[in-house]
Specification:
About 35% of the residues lie in helices and about 20% in strands. The chain has 8 helices and 12 strands.
């Protein structure tokens, strides 16, 4: 397997001391492990995804920005993304990140597993997610305060999600999630009048009633925070960011991020399972439920749509 010269140049790798081989599997792209020897003689490992076409380019740009948005808040929660781009030779799209070694996840403990290991963060997945969800999102360029949205289009599976900025969370969710997926369904499958009426009723009645800005937190609304966006049991695990010698941590991967309401994350988590009562008790001890608390279950159900 040969490493594309575009990646070599972008990451300033020495082709004579760099190898690449297939690693793992993915439903949407090819995956590989890059190994390179640095000038001081130490070996560094990277993870790479590749796929052809414009859709892959969009997907990788979104994942690149998503990983780095999460990593900026909780570095031990996911790998940093180092490069995304397109081959100058054949147009193949690339995403290169720090290597996440999941093969060692069954060995060691929640802390350091040996003298060579770095210090463990000491944070559980619930604590890391709570920190992510209680840290205000950054203010986008050109704005004066944090906004709901994201600087890149992201993909849930292979479905692009528009992320244009909105000051209102209810407006963002109604337009960029519910109405956007309705329009995509109609483009792909034709109109279904009954389906459109139902979605429009949710947008016009349920959304303002449950997550309207004037309704949440006694009229104070919610602040935008970084949301993983596709967090289910298949996108979390235990691994070492950077490979051998790094601390064994609770980690997440394959994000489709957005700056949104913290409880939006819980829709997919609840729908697909893999997070028990102990997890949510710890999480909500650090990231309290939005008020009115008695409507928490209804909001999570809305976010499953």
């Amino acid at each position: 397997m040969k490493l594309d010269t575009t990646v070599i140049q972008a990451l300033s790798l020495d082709p004579d001391s760099t190898t690449v081989k297939s690693h793992g599997s993915s439903g949407f792209n090819a995956t590989a492990k890059i190994s390179t020897t640095l000038q001081d003689g130490t070996q560094k490992h990277l993870f790479m995804k590749t796929a052809p076409g414009k859709n892959a380019e969009v997907m990788f740009r979104g994942e690149h920005a998503s990983l780095n948005a999460i990593h900026a808040v909780v570095p031990s929660l996911c790998p940093a993304s180092l490069y995304t781009g397109v081959s100058k030779d054949d147009g193949t799209a690339f995403l290169v990140t720090d290597f996440l070694d999941m093969s060692s996840s069954s060995s060691g403990s929640s802390g350091s597993s040996g003298s060579e290991d770095q210090q463990h963060s000491g944070m559980s997945l619930a604590a890391k997610l709570a920190k992510l969800h209680t840290t205000p999102a950054p203010t986008p360029e050109g704005y004066t305060s944090p906004m709901f949205g994201f600087p890149e289009t992201t993909c849930c599976g292979d479905t692009p999600q528009p992320n244009g900025y909105e000051a209102s969370w209810a407006k963002f969710y109604a337009r960029n999630r519910l109405s956007a997926i309705l329009e995509k369904c109609e483009r792909n499958n034709g109109q279904d009048k009954e389906f459109r009426v139902l979605v429009e009723k949710v947008v016009d009645v349920v959304v303002p009633r449950l997550i309207g800005d004037e309704h949440l937190n006694d009229g104070k609304g919610v602040m935008p925070v970084v949301i993983h966006g596709d967090l289910w049991s298949g996108n979390k695990g235990r691994g070492r960011i950077g490979g051998k010698g790094a601390a064994l941590e609770d980690v997440v991967f394959d994000p489709s991020a957005v700056y949104g309401h913290s409880e939006f994350e819980l829709g997919i988590m609840n729908m697909f399972g893999g997070f028990g009562k102990g997890f949510f008790d710890e999480y909500h001890g650090l990231c309290p439920k939005t008020r009115p608390v008695e409507e928490y279950g209804d909001r999570v159900s809305l976010y499953e749509l």
